[in-house]
Predict the structure.
Amino acid sequence: MSTSPEANTDHASARRARWFWIALAVVIFVTVVGVLSSAEDTVDVSKSKTPPLPPLVSTETVSVGSETIEVSAFAEVRPRWSAELRAAISGRVTSVRNSALAGELVAAGDTLLTIEDSRYMAQKAEAELALKQADLALWQAKNANLVARKDYQRSGRRAPNDLALKLPQLDIAQSAVASARARLITSKRQLNDATVVAPFAGFVTKRFVSPGQSVSVGDRLVKLVDSTTYELDLELSRANWDLLQKPISGRSAKVTDHNGKIIARARIRQGGGFLDETTRQYKVFLHIQGEEARNVLSGDFVRVLLPGTTVAAALNVPASALTQEGHVWYVDDRDRLQRMTPKVFFRRQDRAVIAAPAGHDIWRIAVTPLASFLPGKRVRAHIGGG
């Protein structure tokens, strides 16, 4: 196909335009490169022959000394007594005292609620009457026995058998008195059970009945937990058990809250008699009572510090000096970092007591070990832990 002269002219114009823009872009690129080259920082860097200083490490100087170990364990505070008071008789609840409401603190012997007792008053009256009748029958039997004995004594004859002396009647009368007296004791106890009282001092945690409600024997009335004596059960490993002062019974232990503040002192009741069947750990039983129990709440989770033995060679270091892997870094006499993995006896707030390795009496302990620490690395020790 032939091409017209106008088409050839348009194609040549397009090629010239394209080369023009390419040339313009090259000129702009060269200009920018020239400007950047002229603006380049030409400040001379002076070379120094002085080597850089070793890194600074915060340390604390610690001396080897004796430390009394405190074995730490966690425990739940539980009341010594906890009971669901249940109905000992059946009847209608006639009144519920304010002392029976949940959250109330009651003393031993405080009345909580009452149950309708007319039936038990009648049973008590019947038992009293039966006892009087039995006493009368016993008196009559004794008198008949006495008369029979005197008759045989006057006649000079010997009674042929016990029946002649009215002894079986006397024995039955005595048994009847004992039975009537037992029935009277039972009726009195049932009548007393119509008034439900707190068997010990504590907090009412739940109420199950309301006035007018009918209850049967065994129905739940209120739940009461002790507020004067608390118990704690601890579990210790064999290693921690070996660190305790022996014997442990009767010794005092510190009880702290989650902030490490001492809130009470517990008395060790017993421990070490057996191992837990599941964990195979030693069991230690403590109690808190009296004034010490006022700062403790039932259900709280506390830390207990048990008195341990005294270690002659120990280091009291910052708790931050212990890494997650259990290492402690220190600076040796040549100002080089070294690492040790000591035995940790116990922790106390922001301090930790560890076994002191042999060889030195004074140690420069790194307060805050870093991940970049390497054994043998030269450092500058900053004494004081700041």
